Task: inverse folding
């Protein structure tokens, strides 16, 4: 599999087919941890995420990034943003920064092993909010507002922008151009999206 880098050169990227337990453990151990060989796959839509047991310590989380989705710069920018949110006591789980744990704008949070890009996280629990509870909704709104306020103070160069063009217009056109919707339903689809 290949992708284009920022210079539009084709580069080879690894797919998930060779991401086996040994590779996962070796990747984690390459960052100075000693695994006890326990691995638990966690839910993730785009990436591969695992809880990895660490000898005589709390397990850590290893996130292996889907090849070809985001550039290294985008991932690092996202890591730095998560770290900034956590430093401001906004509930976000930043990656583990090797060498300088409290440093924002540090590129030591994205690692590579056997062709896979990955990051490590402390294991943190959580629970889903009760969306029928007004107090939960209040706190969700408060944290979302704070996240947006912090984001507004940054000049992001690489993170994708949420826009009508990128999240509605382009997918809409792609679906129609590739005839993913039966002819019978096209008019209804166009009415919903319009």
Result:
């Amino acid at each position: 599999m290949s992708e284009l880098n920022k210079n539009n050169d084709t580069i080879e990227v690894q797919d998930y087919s060779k991401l086996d337990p040994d590779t996962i453990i070796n990747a984690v151990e390459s960052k100075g941890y000693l695994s006890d060989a326990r691995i638990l796959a966690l839910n993730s839509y785009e990436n591969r995420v695992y809880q990895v047991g660490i000898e005589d310590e709390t397990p850590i989380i290893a996130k292996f990034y889907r090849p070809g989705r985001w550039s290294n710069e985008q991932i690092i920018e996202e890591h730095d943003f998560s770290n900034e949110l956590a430093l401001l006591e906004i509930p976000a789980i930043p990656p583990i920064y090797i060498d300088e744990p409290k440093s924002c704008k540090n590129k030591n949070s994205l690692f590579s092993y056997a062709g896979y890009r990955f990051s490590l996280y402390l294991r943190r629990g959580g629970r889903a909010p009760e969306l029928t509870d007004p107090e939960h909704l209040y706190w969700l709104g408060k944290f979302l507002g704070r996240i947006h306020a912090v984001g507004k103070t940054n000049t992001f160069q690489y993170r994708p922008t949420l826009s009508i063009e990128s999240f509605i217009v382009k997918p809409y056109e792609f679906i129609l151009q590739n005839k993913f919707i039966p002819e019978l339903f096209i008019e209804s689809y166009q009415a919903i999206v319009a």
User: Anything to note?
Assistant: The longest strand covers residues 35-42. The beta strands are 2-4, 10-12, 35-42, 48-54, 57-64, 111-113, 116-122. The longest helix spans residues 134-152. The CA atoms of residues 42 and 50 lie 5 Å apart.
